[in-house]
């Protein structure tokens, strides 16, 4: 079929879908690049703004149930055939068409097929960037398809870009805010008791005993009032409970899978996501989460991943009574004097994390002496205002005498903050040169 005729057919269908919808019969099964793109834009324009439920023959729009008309059923049948053609095609245009439909029809039927096709396109050379950008955009700004993307990406070789934008998702951040509001409301309700009513108020607001017709009218009024309040609440929350549960479960599954499989390229994004969404991660998973976080920062060699992981552990478990020994050891190793990979920005982050652990949270005297000895040696090789301030803060808070020989029991290359050996020659030669 020539392109001019395809254009004429698409124009007729857009102008009058009810009468010309049958013209799609010969087009939806043709695997041609230009026809795929043309039909993708056609369906983008003629598909309705609701999901068609064929089994119930009804359309649920807000609180109203509308009947499905014949045109909707025919349209859904052709759309189904067109998606089968796209999914079976290996053309680059088929992946681009799936991206166009996912961006425009994320509310419509067969969304899972589009998500799978786009995820498959992230592994194809030449079209991968286009597919990745589509998924990133959906995660950031969409709420209808985000749970499908998070749930389906585990079946494909997804890249780190998906994990990197999780903390920027407007829908997930809305879920966090909703959880915070619910917790605050519960605490407020728990601590604030309603004032006692007088006898006259009790008579007026007390339970009324009605009979006959008045009782039936009052029952109908209460049912209507309940439905109205529920509708107002849903409009205020703007979050569907079913989608909310699916999204949170998919997010948790993605986080724990990445941590368990130790996908190094995705760790940075997952650490940020855990920090951002710690309020919506179920409490019973916290013990396993801490184990996986510790395991990942122990095995990774990237300083950025170590610092991000330690920051996440402090953010989630810092206020609890957990012993953060593994995090302390990793910071102790990062702050070794002859570390060629340590940049100025990384040193600043490391100092801030040590300050959180030793100044804001506090640790034992033995650990504070060992970390101070390590920082003293490091400060002789690297000049940094943050490092000097941190040394002074730890010295003053823990009342440590820097001239005491017991302070310098930590060797330069020791890796365990709790097991220090005898004095290193560097510490001995420099311990009397520090002035506070």
From TrEMBL:
Q: Which GO terms describe its molecular function?
A: chromatin binding
What are the annotated GO cellular component locations? nucleolus
One protein family per Pfam: NOC3p
- Domain (Nucleolar complex-associated protein 3 N-terminal) spans 6-82
Its domain of life? Answer: Eukaryota
Q: Which GO terms describe its biological process?
A: DNA replication initiation
Protein name according to UniProt: NOC3L
Native species of this protein?
A: Hepatospora eriocheir
Phylogenetic classification of the source organism: Eukaryota, Fungi, Fungi incertae sedis, Microsporidia, Hepatosporidae
Recorded name of the encoding gene: NOC3L
